[in-house]
Amino acid sequence: MSSRVRIRVDRIACDGRGLCGEILPELITFDDWGFPIIKENLVPEDLDGVAHDAVELCPKLALRLEALEQECCSSKVVRTSVVATSWTPS
Amino acid sequence: MPTHGLVLQPRALPREERVEVSRLLPDGTANCAGLADHLVRHGELPPSRRSLAWRETMTTEIEHAGLVGHGGAAFPTAKKLKAVISQASRAVVIANGTEGEPASEKDRTLLTRAPHLVLDGASVAADIVEASEVLVVVHRDVRAAVDAAVDERRSAELDRVPLRVVTAADRFVAGEASAVVNWVARARPVPLGRPPRTSERGLDGRPTLVQNVETLAHLALIARHGAAWYRALGTPDEPGSMLVTLLGALEEPGVREIEIGTSVAEVLARAGGPTTPLQALLVGGYFGSWLPAHPTLSLPFSARGLGAGLGAGLVVAFPTDACGVAETARLARYLACESAGQCGPCLFGLPAIADEVEKLAEGRSNRLGDLERWLVEIEGRGACSHPDGVARLVSSALRVFAVEVAEHLEGWCTGEGERHVLPIPPGGSR
Predict the structure, then answer these.
(1) CATH number, domain at A42?
(2) Rounded Cα–Cα distance for residues B256 and B243 (Å)
(3) What is the complex's ipTM, to 2 decimals?
(4) How far A41 CA lies from chain B's nearest CA (Å)?
(5) pLDDT grade, residue A68 (50/70/90)?
(6) CB B214 within 8 A of CB B243
(7) How many C-beta atoms lie closer than 10 Å to residue B366's C-beta?
(8) Taking a C-beta distance cutoff of 8 angstroms, is the pair A20, A51 a contact?
(9) Domains of chain B (ranges, CATH numbers)
(10) Of the candidates B193, B195, B349, which has its C-beta nearest A12's C-beta?
(11) Can you give the pTM of this predicted structure?
């Protein structure tokens, strides 16, 4: 078990497509409207590769992994998805 | 307390009476709107404000003072200052007087009765973080008063940096720091995702210090009198005074300044005391917590004393003859409508929560278990803390009004008719 990397959802970018939970059911589940709930945000070492897949495959680029340095409050983004658009209901 | 041998020797001021506090607001109903009156009352700011030593001393004094934000989140001001100072590019200061909380009036009252204290604080903050510009974002009700004050200061050449006044957007989430930046930059008063924080990258990508106007007024006094003076009021954990908006079943509702740690009963006494027996208090804001009248009335008015954040200083005295479930349903619906609609959990979760609380209020609840699960699941799942605030409010209502909830599940309500205590803007916005 490692706590080097933390998974995080950009809630504005996330559209509830659901791929993340399909790929990473160990860490991600869904609410009643299909939006992800991160059950555990620290990524265990053995799920590292799958977590990276989930980040790559999110169609809204809404998932990111952050490297943890010392405390949980100071973290560095190792791979950031650039968010192109956010949407609002018309 | 280290002062680096500089300007901040606390002046010997008389310790205020425990209940009657008038640091920010002038006594009684007097106004201190004009610059001349302001200078008579508070004196000038220290002169050597541009030196590095002064800036460092001020940051330390603010840290020792224990000043926290009075917009709602109670974030330590010194921490925010340091975050902005640590950035390489030129900073901006935003004095946040949006006051999107519909029941709160303290920021507008402060900006009307003592605008120069806020502007002093904004100017000092700009000196500390070496900002090149100050934006003063205020509720439209007080725009004219703030414009007049800024004009006076411009003529007197009081400030190093230019002050620009902007009318705030009129909605609940518009006061959140990133939403204020978004409003000023793009006329879209909705929160931005995090990270980065506004202190790192805010307006035009510049490090941006967003501080509530009351916080800046306190800062202006700390610049004059130092940390020790500031700490002479309040509790060791939560020093100082604060503005509160007192409303509900009270003789003379309105904005008062109180010493933090004063008993809740004494705080209510500042508004003439309750008009009828109380069953509960809503503390903080519409994103705050319901607390039972007993033992809350005898507890100290502080976050530690109440075990609940003081938020934006709202205190609602809720009478025994009103229905807490029905009132919470009204609030939940209002807050659901005020969602910026950007994040799924908020966009879909809040209306579902509001629906369930409304059904509960009408005595036809059938998904109480789902409601309780949603309240837990929604936490921390928005770009801002709007959904968390709604969850806090509704969860506290289910706890504090547990007896009323049980009655409602049986089809009864102990409230008397349609008695509304909490103001909600018509049509969901002002």
Answers:
(1) 3.30.70.20
(2) 6
(3) 0.86
(4) 12
(5) confident
(6) yes
(7) 10
(8) no
(9) 35-231 (3.40.50.11540), 241-319 (3.10.20.600), 324-428 (1.20.1440.230)
(10) B193
(11) 0.90
